[in-house]
Amino acid sequence: MTPEQLIALDQQYVWHPYASMDNPPPSYPVVGASGVRLTLANGQELIDGMASWWCAVHGYNHPHLNEAMKLQISDMSHVMFGGITHEPAVTLANRLVDLTPAGLDKVFFSDSGSVAVEVAIKMALQYWHSKTQANKNRMLTIRNGYHGDTFGAMAVCDPINGMHTLFASVLPQHHFVDAPPMGFDRPLIDGDLAELEDKMCKYQNEIAALILEPIVQGAGGMRFYSPEWLKGAADLCKQYNILLIADEIATGFGRSGALFACDHAQVKPDIMCLGKAITGGTMSFAATLTTAEIATSISRGEASCFMHGPTFMANPLACAVANASLDLLERSDWKSQVNGLNKGLNILLQPAKALPYVEDVRVLGAIGVIEVTQAVDLGIIQKMFVEEGIWVRPFGKLVYVMPPYVMSPQDLALLCSGMLSVLERYFRQHHATS
Ligand SMILES: *Cc1c(COP(=O)(O)O)cnc(C)c1O
Prior knowledge:
By secondary structure, the chain is of the alpha/beta class.
Protein backbone atom coordinates (compact mmCIF):
# COMPACT_ATOMS: atom_id res chain seq x y z
CA MET A 1 0.00 0.00 0.00
CA THR A 2 1.36 3.45 -0.81
CA PRO A 3 1.09 6.09 1.92
CA GLU A 4 -1.59 7.81 -0.19
CA GLN A 5 -3.67 4.62 -0.43
CA LEU A 6 -3.27 4.05 3.31
CA ILE A 7 -4.48 7.55 4.12
CA ALA A 8 -7.47 7.23 1.78
CA LEU A 9 -8.59 3.87 3.28
CA ASP A 10 -7.99 5.21 6.78
CA GLN A 11 -10.26 8.16 6.08
CA GLN A 12 -12.87 5.84 4.58
CA TYR A 13 -13.02 3.24 7.36
CA VAL A 14 -11.23 4.19 10.55
CA TRP A 15 -12.39 6.46 13.32
CA HIS A 16 -9.66 8.44 15.16
CA PRO A 17 -9.84 10.02 18.64
CA TYR A 18 -12.31 12.88 18.82
CA ALA A 19 -12.45 12.97 15.02
CA SER A 20 -15.12 13.48 12.38
CA MET A 21 -15.95 10.67 9.94
CA ASP A 22 -17.74 13.10 7.67
CA ASN A 23 -14.77 15.28 6.95
CA PRO A 24 -11.94 13.23 8.48
CA PRO A 25 -8.64 15.01 8.95
CA PRO A 26 -5.74 13.18 7.28
CA SER A 27 -3.54 11.20 9.67
CA TYR A 28 0.20 10.70 9.25
CA PRO A 29 1.15 7.07 8.54
CA VAL A 30 3.90 5.99 10.95
CA VAL A 31 5.96 2.92 10.05
CA GLY A 32 8.34 2.78 12.98
CA ALA A 33 9.44 4.39 16.20
CA SER A 34 12.78 4.22 17.95
CA GLY A 35 14.21 6.19 20.86
CA VAL A 36 12.50 9.60 20.70
CA ARG A 37 11.80 9.48 16.95
CA LEU A 38 8.77 8.49 14.91
CA THR A 39 9.40 7.44 11.29
CA LEU A 40 6.74 8.43 8.77
CA ALA A 41 5.90 6.31 5.71
CA ASN A 42 7.69 8.81 3.48
CA GLY A 43 10.88 8.25 5.45
CA GLN A 44 10.77 11.52 7.39
CA GLU A 45 11.73 11.35 11.08
CA LEU A 46 9.98 13.40 13.74
CA ILE A 47 11.25 14.20 17.23
CA ASP A 48 8.38 13.13 19.45
CA GLY A 49 7.27 15.65 22.08
CA MET A 50 4.15 13.73 23.10
CA ALA A 51 5.53 10.34 24.23
CA SER A 52 2.33 8.93 22.70
CA TRP A 53 0.01 10.72 25.06
CA TRP A 54 2.52 10.82 27.89
CA CYS A 55 3.13 7.05 28.04
CA ALA A 56 6.40 6.24 26.25
CA VAL A 57 8.66 7.46 29.05
CA HIS A 58 11.63 5.26 28.07
CA GLY A 59 11.37 6.03 24.36
CA TYR A 60 10.26 3.61 21.63
CA ASN A 61 11.49 0.17 20.73
CA HIS A 62 13.42 -0.20 23.97
CA PRO A 63 15.35 -3.48 23.96
CA HIS A 64 14.55 -4.27 27.61
CA LEU A 65 10.81 -3.78 27.10
CA ASN A 66 10.86 -5.72 23.82
CA GLU A 67 12.77 -8.57 25.42
CA ALA A 68 10.32 -8.80 28.35
CA MET A 69 7.41 -9.06 25.92
CA LYS A 70 9.12 -11.67 23.73
CA LEU A 71 9.93 -13.83 26.77
CA GLN A 72 6.38 -13.52 28.07
CA ILE A 73 4.84 -14.35 24.66
CA SER A 74 6.82 -17.59 24.60
CA ASP A 75 5.20 -18.57 27.94
CA MET A 76 1.69 -17.18 27.39
CA SER A 77 0.28 -13.90 26.13
CA HIS A 78 -2.92 -14.19 28.05
CA VAL A 79 -4.90 -16.35 30.44
CA MET A 80 -8.07 -15.46 32.29
CA PHE A 81 -7.60 -14.11 35.84
CA GLY A 82 -10.67 -15.73 37.40
CA GLY A 83 -9.39 -18.66 39.45
CA ILE A 84 -5.91 -18.34 37.88
CA THR A 85 -2.88 -16.32 38.86
CA HIS A 86 0.61 -15.81 37.45
CA GLU A 87 3.99 -14.45 38.39
CA PRO A 88 3.97 -11.27 36.23
CA ALA A 89 0.80 -10.04 37.98
CA VAL A 90 1.89 -10.97 41.50
CA THR A 91 5.33 -9.40 41.08
CA LEU A 92 3.87 -6.25 39.58
CA ALA A 93 1.28 -5.85 42.35
CA ASN A 94 4.01 -6.30 44.92
CA ARG A 95 6.24 -3.69 43.31
CA LEU A 96 3.42 -1.15 42.90
CA VAL A 97 2.52 -1.54 46.58
CA ASP A 98 6.17 -0.88 47.49
CA LEU A 99 6.49 2.20 45.23
CA THR A 100 3.19 3.96 45.92
CA PRO A 101 2.37 5.93 49.10
CA ALA A 102 2.10 3.89 52.30
CA GLY A 103 -1.23 2.20 52.95
CA LEU A 104 -2.07 1.37 49.34
CA ASP A 105 -1.74 -2.39 49.75
CA LYS A 106 -4.33 -3.99 47.45
CA VAL A 107 -4.17 -3.87 43.66
CA PHE A 108 -6.92 -4.26 41.08
CA PHE A 109 -5.69 -4.52 37.47
CA SER A 110 -7.69 -3.37 34.46
CA ASP A 111 -7.13 -2.49 30.84
CA SER A 112 -7.28 1.29 30.52
CA GLY A 113 -7.18 4.47 32.54
CA SER A 114 -10.89 5.16 32.19
CA VAL A 115 -11.69 1.71 33.56
CA ALA A 116 -9.26 2.25 36.45
CA VAL A 117 -11.31 5.36 37.30
CA GLU A 118 -14.60 3.44 37.02
CA VAL A 119 -13.13 0.85 39.38
CA ALA A 120 -12.01 3.55 41.84
CA ILE A 121 -15.48 5.13 41.92
CA LYS A 122 -17.10 1.73 42.33
CA MET A 123 -14.72 0.91 45.21
CA ALA A 124 -15.72 4.12 46.98
CA LEU A 125 -19.43 3.38 46.52
CA GLN A 126 -19.14 -0.25 47.61
CA TYR A 127 -17.08 0.82 50.63
CA TRP A 128 -19.74 3.18 51.94
CA HIS A 129 -22.44 0.65 51.10
CA SER A 130 -20.60 -1.88 53.25
CA LYS A 131 -20.46 0.68 56.05
CA THR A 132 -24.26 0.98 55.83
CA GLN A 133 -23.89 4.54 54.52
CA ALA A 134 -25.14 3.86 50.99
CA ASN A 135 -26.41 7.43 50.91
CA LYS A 136 -22.78 8.46 50.43
CA ASN A 137 -22.95 7.92 46.66
CA ARG A 138 -21.87 11.21 45.07
CA MET A 139 -18.41 12.26 44.03
CA LEU A 140 -16.85 15.61 44.77
CA THR A 141 -14.33 16.94 42.31
CA ILE A 142 -12.55 20.04 41.05
CA ARG A 143 -13.24 21.85 37.79
CA ASN A 144 -10.77 21.47 34.88
CA GLY A 145 -10.37 17.78 35.67
CA TYR A 146 -10.06 14.96 33.18
CA HIS A 147 -10.62 11.35 34.21
CA GLY A 148 -11.48 9.50 31.01
CA ASP A 149 -14.20 8.96 28.43
CA THR A 150 -16.45 6.24 29.92
CA PHE A 151 -19.68 7.33 31.62
CA GLY A 152 -18.57 7.17 35.24
CA ALA A 153 -15.32 8.94 34.41
CA MET A 154 -17.02 11.53 32.17
CA ALA A 155 -19.32 12.49 35.01
CA VAL A 156 -16.33 13.78 37.01
CA CYS A 157 -14.61 15.54 34.08
CA ASP A 158 -14.88 19.31 33.87
CA PRO A 159 -18.56 19.98 33.14
CA ILE A 160 -17.77 22.71 30.60
CA ASN A 161 -14.48 21.96 28.84
CA GLY A 162 -14.89 18.24 29.53
CA MET A 163 -16.31 17.84 26.02
CA HIS A 164 -19.16 15.89 27.57
CA THR A 165 -21.93 18.44 28.03
CA LEU A 166 -23.69 16.48 25.30
CA PHE A 167 -24.31 13.64 27.74
CA ALA A 168 -25.17 15.78 30.75
CA SER A 169 -28.75 14.44 30.92
CA VAL A 170 -27.66 10.82 31.40
CA LEU A 171 -24.64 11.38 33.63
CA PRO A 172 -24.85 10.99 37.41
CA GLN A 173 -24.82 14.39 39.09
CA HIS A 174 -21.78 15.09 41.24
CA HIS A 175 -20.48 18.06 43.23
CA PHE A 176 -17.93 20.42 41.67
CA VAL A 177 -15.77 23.17 43.15
CA ASP A 178 -13.43 25.56 41.39
CA ALA A 179 -10.01 24.24 40.45
CA PRO A 180 -7.22 25.10 42.88
CA PRO A 181 -5.38 28.37 42.17
CA MET A 182 -2.61 27.89 39.62
CA GLY A 183 1.03 27.58 40.51
CA PHE A 184 3.07 24.76 42.05
CA ASP A 185 4.94 27.27 44.25
CA ARG A 186 2.00 29.48 45.07
CA PRO A 187 1.69 29.86 48.85
CA LEU A 188 -1.65 28.79 50.26
CA ILE A 189 -3.66 31.76 51.44
CA ASP A 190 -6.79 32.09 53.52
CA GLY A 191 -9.85 31.10 51.57
CA ASP A 192 -8.09 28.90 49.01
CA LEU A 193 -9.79 25.82 50.42
CA ALA A 194 -12.97 27.56 51.54
CA GLU A 195 -15.26 26.41 48.74
CA LEU A 196 -14.04 22.83 49.09
CA GLU A 197 -14.59 22.82 52.84
CA ASP A 198 -17.98 24.43 52.41
CA LYS A 199 -19.13 21.69 50.01
CA MET A 200 -17.74 18.95 52.24
CA CYS A 201 -19.41 20.42 55.27
CA LYS A 202 -22.78 20.79 53.55
CA TYR A 203 -22.84 17.46 51.73
CA GLN A 204 -20.67 15.13 53.81
CA ASN A 205 -23.61 12.74 54.20
CA GLU A 206 -23.85 12.21 50.47
CA ILE A 207 -20.23 12.54 49.33
CA ALA A 208 -18.38 9.23 48.98
CA ALA A 209 -15.07 10.56 47.73
CA LEU A 210 -13.11 13.51 46.45
CA ILE A 211 -11.56 12.55 43.12
CA LEU A 212 -8.82 14.68 41.62
CA GLU A 213 -5.63 14.64 39.61
CA PRO A 214 -2.95 15.53 42.18
CA ILE A 215 -0.75 18.59 41.36
CA VAL A 216 -1.17 18.39 37.56
CA GLN A 217 -4.54 18.67 35.85
CA GLY A 218 -3.79 17.18 32.43
CA ALA A 219 -6.23 17.02 29.53
CA GLY A 220 -8.62 19.38 31.36
CA GLY A 221 -6.26 22.34 31.04
CA MET A 222 -2.62 21.47 31.78
CA ARG A 223 -2.79 23.32 35.08
CA PHE A 224 -0.36 22.92 37.99
CA TYR A 225 -1.30 23.58 41.61
CA SER A 226 0.48 23.46 44.93
CA PRO A 227 1.29 20.54 47.22
CA GLU A 228 -0.02 22.71 50.07
CA TRP A 229 -3.47 22.82 48.48
CA LEU A 230 -3.40 19.06 47.92
CA LYS A 231 -2.36 18.46 51.53
CA GLY A 232 -5.12 20.77 52.73
CA ALA A 233 -7.70 18.95 50.61
CA ALA A 234 -6.49 15.56 51.88
CA ASP A 235 -6.77 16.77 55.49
CA LEU A 236 -10.31 18.03 54.86
CA CYS A 237 -11.25 14.60 53.45
CA LYS A 238 -10.23 12.99 56.77
CA GLN A 239 -12.01 15.64 58.79
CA TYR A 240 -15.29 15.17 56.88
CA ASN A 241 -15.12 11.40 56.48
CA ILE A 242 -14.69 11.51 52.70
CA LEU A 243 -12.38 9.17 50.76
CA LEU A 244 -9.63 10.61 48.58
CA ILE A 245 -9.17 9.16 45.08
CA ALA A 246 -5.92 10.29 43.44
CA ASP A 247 -6.05 9.88 39.67
CA GLU A 248 -2.32 9.53 38.90
CA ILE A 249 -2.88 8.14 35.41
CA ALA A 250 -1.07 11.12 33.85
CA THR A 251 1.26 12.00 36.73
CA GLY A 252 2.37 8.54 37.87
CA PHE A 253 5.91 7.21 37.31
CA GLY A 254 7.84 10.45 37.59
CA ARG A 255 6.29 12.85 35.08
CA SER A 256 5.72 15.67 37.60
CA GLY A 257 9.19 15.38 39.17
CA ALA A 258 8.11 13.06 41.99
CA LEU A 259 7.50 9.34 41.42
CA PHE A 260 3.82 10.02 42.17
CA ALA A 261 2.40 13.54 42.35
CA CYS A 262 0.96 12.74 45.81
CA ASP A 263 4.57 12.40 47.00
CA HIS A 264 5.08 16.18 46.55
CA ALA A 265 2.70 16.65 49.48
CA GLN A 266 3.29 13.36 51.33
CA VAL A 267 -0.41 12.68 50.79
CA LYS A 268 -1.65 9.12 51.23
CA PRO A 269 -4.83 8.72 49.20
CA ASP A 270 -7.38 5.99 49.98
CA ILE A 271 -7.53 4.94 46.33
CA MET A 272 -5.05 5.59 43.52
CA CYS A 273 -5.45 5.12 39.75
CA LEU A 274 -2.45 4.32 37.56
CA GLY A 275 -2.32 3.95 33.79
CA LYS A 276 -0.66 5.61 30.81
CA ALA A 277 3.12 5.20 31.50
CA ILE A 278 2.62 2.00 33.53
CA THR A 279 3.77 -0.21 30.60
CA GLY A 280 6.28 2.33 29.32
CA GLY A 281 3.93 3.15 26.48
CA THR A 282 3.78 -0.33 25.02
CA MET A 283 0.36 -1.72 25.95
CA SER A 284 -3.01 -0.64 27.26
CA PHE A 285 -3.05 -1.36 30.98
CA ALA A 286 -4.05 0.21 34.29
CA ALA A 287 -4.30 -0.42 38.02
CA THR A 288 -6.40 0.81 40.91
CA LEU A 289 -4.82 0.54 44.36
CA THR A 290 -6.53 0.84 47.69
CA THR A 291 -6.05 0.25 51.41
CA ALA A 292 -6.51 -3.01 53.29
CA GLU A 293 -9.29 -1.36 55.28
CA ILE A 294 -11.33 -0.47 52.20
CA ALA A 295 -10.69 -3.83 50.54
CA THR A 296 -11.72 -5.70 53.68
CA SER A 297 -14.88 -3.61 54.19
CA ILE A 298 -15.95 -4.15 50.59
CA SER A 299 -15.31 -7.88 50.94
CA ARG A 300 -17.41 -8.09 54.11
CA GLY A 301 -20.25 -6.08 52.57
CA GLU A 302 -23.49 -7.27 51.05
CA ALA A 303 -21.88 -8.63 47.87
CA SER A 304 -18.99 -10.31 49.76
CA CYS A 305 -16.72 -9.33 46.91
CA PHE A 306 -15.76 -6.44 44.69
CA MET A 307 -18.16 -6.33 41.76
CA HIS A 308 -15.80 -5.95 38.84
CA GLY A 309 -13.75 -8.27 36.61
CA PRO A 310 -12.59 -7.30 33.13
CA THR A 311 -12.03 -10.10 30.58
CA PHE A 312 -8.41 -9.08 30.06
CA MET A 313 -7.73 -8.38 33.74
CA ALA A 314 -4.01 -8.65 34.64
CA ASN A 315 -3.03 -9.58 31.07
CA PRO A 316 0.33 -11.36 31.55
CA LEU A 317 1.98 -9.65 28.59
CA ALA A 318 1.05 -6.20 29.92
CA CYS A 319 2.13 -7.16 33.47
CA ALA A 320 5.48 -8.45 32.16
CA VAL A 321 6.23 -5.27 30.24
CA ALA A 322 5.05 -3.12 33.17
CA ASN A 323 7.58 -4.95 35.35
CA ALA A 324 10.26 -4.28 32.73
CA SER A 325 9.28 -0.60 32.67
CA LEU A 326 9.71 -0.45 36.46
CA ASP A 327 13.17 -2.06 36.04
CA LEU A 328 14.11 0.79 33.71
CA LEU A 329 12.75 3.44 36.07
CA GLU A 330 14.84 1.98 38.87
CA ARG A 331 17.94 1.52 36.74
CA SER A 332 17.92 4.69 34.68
CA ASP A 333 17.62 7.28 37.45
CA TRP A 334 14.37 8.75 36.18
CA LYS A 335 14.74 11.61 38.64
CA SER A 336 17.83 13.06 37.03
CA GLN A 337 16.32 12.49 33.57
CA VAL A 338 13.18 14.42 34.56
CA ASN A 339 15.23 17.12 36.32
CA GLY A 340 17.35 17.49 33.20
CA LEU A 341 14.28 17.90 30.99
CA ASN A 342 12.84 20.33 33.53
CA LYS A 343 15.91 22.57 33.42
CA GLY A 344 16.00 22.39 29.61
CA LEU A 345 12.30 23.20 29.22
CA ASN A 346 12.57 26.13 31.62
CA ILE A 347 15.40 27.66 29.63
CA LEU A 348 14.21 26.81 26.13
CA LEU A 349 10.57 27.84 26.53
CA GLN A 350 11.43 31.02 28.45
CA PRO A 351 11.63 33.23 25.29
CA ALA A 352 7.94 32.46 24.57
CA LYS A 353 6.91 34.45 27.68
CA ALA A 354 7.50 37.75 25.91
CA LEU A 355 5.46 36.93 22.80
CA PRO A 356 2.21 38.84 22.21
CA TYR A 357 0.25 35.67 21.37
CA VAL A 358 1.42 33.85 24.48
CA GLU A 359 -0.69 33.99 27.62
CA ASP A 360 1.45 31.83 29.91
CA VAL A 361 4.44 29.51 29.91
CA ARG A 362 4.63 26.89 32.65
CA VAL A 363 6.95 24.00 33.34
CA LEU A 364 6.76 21.25 35.96
CA GLY A 365 8.77 18.05 35.95
CA ALA A 366 9.02 16.88 32.34
CA ILE A 367 5.98 18.89 31.26
CA GLY A 368 6.30 22.12 29.27
CA VAL A 369 3.22 24.16 28.41
CA ILE A 370 2.78 27.24 26.23
CA GLU A 371 -0.73 28.64 26.60
CA VAL A 372 -1.53 30.90 23.65
CA THR A 373 -4.21 33.59 23.47
CA GLN A 374 -6.42 31.89 20.87
CA ALA A 375 -7.25 28.23 20.26
CA VAL A 376 -5.08 26.90 17.44
CA ASP A 377 -6.40 25.29 14.27
CA LEU A 378 -5.12 21.73 14.61
CA GLY A 379 -5.38 21.01 10.87
CA ILE A 380 -3.08 23.91 10.03
CA ILE A 381 -0.62 23.77 12.89
CA GLN A 382 -0.18 19.98 12.88
CA LYS A 383 1.12 20.16 9.31
CA MET A 384 3.51 22.95 10.28
CA PHE A 385 4.93 20.92 13.18
CA VAL A 386 5.51 17.93 10.89
CA GLU A 387 7.23 20.12 8.30
CA GLU A 388 9.43 21.34 11.14
CA GLY A 389 10.36 17.72 11.97
CA ILE A 390 8.64 17.53 15.37
CA TRP A 391 5.54 15.79 16.68
CA VAL A 392 3.46 18.10 18.87
CA ARG A 393 -0.30 17.77 19.22
CA PRO A 394 -1.90 20.78 20.91
CA PHE A 395 -5.47 21.07 22.15
CA GLY A 396 -7.33 24.38 22.27
CA LYS A 397 -4.95 27.06 23.48
CA LEU A 398 -2.51 24.56 24.94
CA VAL A 399 0.64 23.81 23.01
CA TYR A 400 2.61 21.49 25.24
CA VAL A 401 5.27 18.79 25.32
CA MET A 402 5.72 15.75 27.56
CA PRO A 403 8.80 14.16 26.01
CA PRO A 404 10.13 10.67 26.67
CA TYR A 405 12.47 10.89 29.71
CA VAL A 406 15.36 9.68 27.53
CA MET A 407 15.35 12.71 25.23
CA SER A 408 18.84 14.20 24.81
CA PRO A 409 19.49 17.92 25.45
CA GLN A 410 20.15 18.33 21.69
CA ASP A 411 16.80 16.81 20.71
CA LEU A 412 15.01 18.80 23.40
CA ALA A 413 16.54 21.97 21.99
CA LEU A 414 15.38 21.05 18.47
CA LEU A 415 11.91 20.23 19.78
CA CYS A 416 11.53 23.51 21.68
CA SER A 417 13.03 25.77 19.03
CA GLY A 418 10.83 24.02 16.44
CA MET A 419 7.79 24.66 18.59
CA LEU A 420 8.61 28.35 18.98
CA SER A 421 9.32 28.88 15.31
CA VAL A 422 6.08 27.16 14.26
CA LEU A 423 4.09 29.29 16.72
CA GLU A 424 5.75 32.43 15.39
CA ARG A 425 4.88 31.55 11.78
CA TYR A 426 1.40 30.32 12.67
CA PHE A 427 0.42 33.49 14.48
CA ARG A 428 2.00 35.73 11.85
CA GLN A 429 0.10 33.96 9.03
CA HIS A 430 -3.18 33.01 10.63
CA HIS A 431 -3.94 35.46 13.40
CA ALA A 432 -3.45 39.17 13.54
CA THR A 433 -2.50 39.60 17.20
CA SER A 434 -3.67 42.75 18.84
C1 LIG B 1 -5.62 9.68 30.09
C2 LIG B 1 -6.25 9.83 31.41
C3 LIG B 1 -7.34 9.02 31.80
C4 LIG B 1 -7.99 8.02 30.88
O1 LIG B 1 -7.13 7.00 30.50
P1 LIG B 1 -7.46 6.12 29.18
O2 LIG B 1 -6.39 5.09 29.18
O3 LIG B 1 -7.42 7.06 28.02
O4 LIG B 1 -8.82 5.54 29.37
C5 LIG B 1 -7.85 9.20 33.08
N1 LIG B 1 -7.33 10.10 33.93
C6 LIG B 1 -6.29 10.88 33.59
C7 LIG B 1 -5.74 11.85 34.57
C8 LIG B 1 -5.74 10.79 32.31
O5 LIG B 1 -4.72 11.60 31.97
